[in-house]
Amino acid sequence: MESGKRGLLITGGLAAGKEWLEYIKDGFDLVAAADSGIETAVEMGAQVDYAVGDMDSLSDARILEKFKKESIVKFEQDKDYTDTELGLSVLKDNGCGFRCIYGGGGGRLDHLLGIFSLFDRDDGPDLWITESAVIAQIRDTLVLNGMKGSIVSFFPAGVVNCTMVSYGLKWQLDGLEWSKGDAGVSNVVTEDSMRVTIRTGKLVFVGALETLKGLSL
Q: Which helix or strand (DSSP H or E) is residue 92 part of?
């Protein structure tokens, strides 16, 4: 896990319920909301430090009146980056070495793929929580506790081939070397404490939303 502050970005698309936001919110130093994620944040009662985006997806722009002017970071609609990317950049610029996306589920497939592709970047997000899944970047070691029997999947990320060792999986990852296009789908957790450690490259973990409670990065 990277050093520095921890940042949470609430973005547009389907998000896990308010109870999940309550579960994780104390673990973050800064909270940003991107475009229609601003509405999600307000509905869930989240305390937002920065409202970011071109604001074209807001159902009512008057919602911005709830925020101080200095906390609103507005961009033109014709831009080179998505609102989610811009929100992550704002968190990074404010010292957040660990960044989590909350929301972004459902909707258009290109939007889903666009967020997932961020994990290929050197400065990509560390965690993504949708309405039904949790996606975690593994740069070093990931531990999953108390989730025996869960179905989990793994995907290589970045440009360097991924090699790793694992414990507590039905199909261990030891000795494998994965490049883009490879995947380990529908593996099974067989121990109360599962562990995956990266030797080269980086790996993305995908599990059901409930696995968030057992996840340690």
A: helix 83-93
Domains and CATH numbers, the chain: 5-131 (3.40.50.10240), 141-216 (2.60.120.320)
What's the predicted TM-score (pTM) here?
A: 0.94
Report which of 214, 118, 104 is spatially closest to residue 158, judged by C-alpha positions.
118
State the Cα–Cα distance between residues 137 and 203, nearest whole angstrom: 6
Q: What is the pLDDT of residues 18-41, one digit of tens each?
A: 999 999 999 999 999 998 899 999
Report which secondary-structure segment, H or E, holds 42: helix 37-43
Task: For residue 108, give every residue at least 6 positions away whose Cβ sits within 8 Å of its Cβ, in sequence order, or none.
Answer: none
User: For 160-186, how does the pLDDT look when each residue is reduced to its tens digit (9 = 90+)?
Assistant: 999 999 999 999 999 999 999 999 999
- Taking the C-alpha atoms of residue 156 and residue 2, their distance in angstroms, rounded to an integer, is 19
Other beta carbons less than 10 A from residue 102's beta carbon:
28
